[in-house]
Design a protein that fits this description.
Order of helices and strands: EEEHE
Distance between the termini: 39 Å
Number of helices: 1
Shape: globular
Helix content: 10-25%
Strand order of the largest sheet: 3-2-1-4
Oligomer: single chain
Number of strands: 4
Radius of gyration: 11 Å
Structural class: alpha+beta
């Protein structure tokens, strides 16, 4: 049985921001959790636990990793 990918994927970028994709569609580059939460809100996803792996797949580090 294949593991289903979470609807939100956050990728690290070389400039310290993180690319946010929701259902395989890029929605923006986040500089921190506030940006991520705003992208989720605009997509109709409110009160999301950003550490829930069934909702968000963090690549290159979890919700506390925001390189400068």
């Amino acid at each position: 049985m294949d593991k289903q990918q979470p609807p939100v994927v956050v990728h690290p970028l070389v400039d310290g921001k993180r690319l946010v994709k929701i259902h395989d569609q890029s929605v923006g580059k986040a500089r921190g959790l506030d940006d991520l939460v705003e992208f989720l809100r605009r997509a109709g996803l409110e009160d999301v636990d950003v550490d829930n792996p069934s909702i968000i797949e963090w690549r290159g580090g979890g919700s506390g990793v925001w390189p400068a």
